[in-house]
Amino acid sequence: MINIDYNSIRMQLLDRKERLDRVISDIDKSPHLLQLLHQVDSALERIDNGTFGICEVCHDPIESERLIVDPLIRVCLDHLSKHQQRALEQDLDMASKIQRALLPNNNFVSNEWEIYFHYEPAGMVSGDYCDIIKPNNQQDDNLIVTIGDVSGKGVAASMLMTHMHALFHSMTDLELSVNELVRRANRLFCESTAFTHYATLTVSKLYPNGKIEICNAGHCFPMVLGHETSHSIEATGMPIGIFNEGEYFSKEITLLPGEMLLLYTDGLNEARKDEEEFGIDRLTELARRMINKSAKEAVELIIESLKNFLSGTAKLDDLTIMAVKRR
Ligand SMILES: [Zn+2]
């Protein structure tokens, strides 16, 4: 849950009150505006008497993410009216559609690469970020592939995911190295989001000759599946959104035809059945069976294995798996 800055909410409410007062006295004395003014006054009163953010029905705290978006609400999610619940469901449905529309085309194929991903939110929306970006400038034949995981869950995390999407799409035409891309994304993320929010991610630049430049900002280790051996790529920097002045480095690998880079979020390796995690060992074991498969078959093999492992236990975290194969 996010911490609430009561003072800043109070300032926002006072500002709204002033605007409302002005409109009401100058132009419009409609019952709707008067009622809104009453709601603002009552929220200010609740801040002053210490009952702000407490559900009026069950007296439990109201979800802080919702309060930050709308300080006028007075009940927790469990105690919305039928009408409010329906409105919320419609909002979530819309958010989910918007988020789906931001995903890249799946089963991407170029002369050099074949990329397939599986993107599965735990709820209606996801805090995972998954992208394949082809820079617009024609002389650049490279591809940018990203996978990331925003802290937290639900709507707040999904909004940050869309924010990351916009950040990367605005920067990929600048022909930056991957560490410079991540360094800038980190600064922008720090400046534009709450202190409590951060994201882990890997950004890879794919070149036409099989070379991949990869920066891992505190994310689950990507796996390189070679014909001879496999290995993981450890973090080369901190998650983004923590320190403004973060330094990022990249690693370079070269895939031979048929070799694969496997990217995923912790919804895979940290998936739990009772006390047991799916884990990296299981993934490494699977990797041996992936090398002769297509990117799509490799991802499907993992999903199948995860499904068998969970055998009906609900998945609690967002899940993204992506395979990048050199053709
Ligand atoms: Zn309640």
How much helix is in the residues? 25-40%
CATH homolog superfamily of the largest domain:
PPM-type phosphatase domain
The helix/strand class is alpha+beta
Radius of gyration: 23 Å
What is the rounded distance between the termini? 44 Å
User: What is the chain-wise order of helices and strands?
Assistant: HHHHEEEEHHEEEEEEHEEHHE
- Beta-strand fraction estimate: 15-25%
Give a list of the ligands: zinc ion
Overview of the molecule:
The protein has 327 residues and is an alpha+beta fold. The protein folds into two domains: 6-82, Four Helix Bundle (Hemerythrin (Met), subunit A) (Up-down Bundle), CATH 1.20.120; 97-326, Phosphatase 2c, domain 1, CATH 3.60.40. 39% of the residues lie in helices and 20% in strands. It is built from nine helices and 13 strands. It has helices at residues 6-26, 31-49, 64-69, 82-101, 154-171, 178-192, 266-269, 279-287, 295-310, and strands at 108-109, 113-120, 128-133, 143-150, 199-206, 211-217, 223-225, 230-232, 251-254, 260-264, 272-273, 276-277, 319-326. Strand 11 (272-273) and strand 12 (276-277) form a beta hairpin. Helix 1 packs antiparallel against helix 2 and helix 5 (154-171) packs across helix 6. The chain is elongated. Bound molecules: zinc ion.
